[in-house]
Give the backbone structure.
Amino acid sequence: MEWINEYKKLFFEGKKDEAYKLKYNNFPKKLYKYEVIDKSKINTLINNELWFSNPDDFNDPFDSCGVCFNENEVKKFFKDIDVSKLLNSFKQDVKICCFSEEVNSMPMWTHYAGNHEGMCMEYDFSKIDYKNRFSKYLFPVVYQTERYDITNILRDLINNKTEDTAYMLFFMMQVKHISWNYEKEWRIIFKSKELRNNMRLPIKPSALYLGLNCSSENMEYIKKLAHNTIKCPIYKFEKTNNKLFNFKSICIDK
């Protein structure tokens, strides 16, 4: 993602509109959301909603903690402020919805779709204008071996050189350890006060995929749902008989 550095440069220079356009032009054509099949997830699907969670509920102990700072330097300009508590307050003030660039990731089906028993929704975010908040606040996760040093950002913040805390939130929410890079994650980040736990999406799923171990009962129920409510094609994954550890999607929307 070589464009990320240019995006950050534009963003920090206050050229947000240019930054959002650049990011929009580098969106993957499709993004995927893995889910288990239960009543709450079915309801969000029927209502065309996305479920947002606080980072504390995620399985990565360092989620939204991908930053560090020089304590001695920070004490010079944050004399009466506990910066760690400040950063934690930013973390508590956001909710996140996660997506992946991959639909056929075996670990993702295992970890987030009930051991291949669940489903995966496909969304085409290119159908949303770059000024739409679902586009503006959709960011790729950056995978690194080290956390991002925000000492200079904190200095600028205290000197009122940044417009708002979005600069801080960008780095806090996007940097994860490289061991998570198989997720190829993108995430929408909203401030908690902007929403409840769920929010209606301006686009519907462009396809639905069912896992290898999805039950016949759930498969028939999702097929009916796709026909009557969502009106999108539906696919079922199956194992392949070849040398590679692959599985393929079969259209069952017939």
About this structure: The chain has a mean pLDDT of 87.
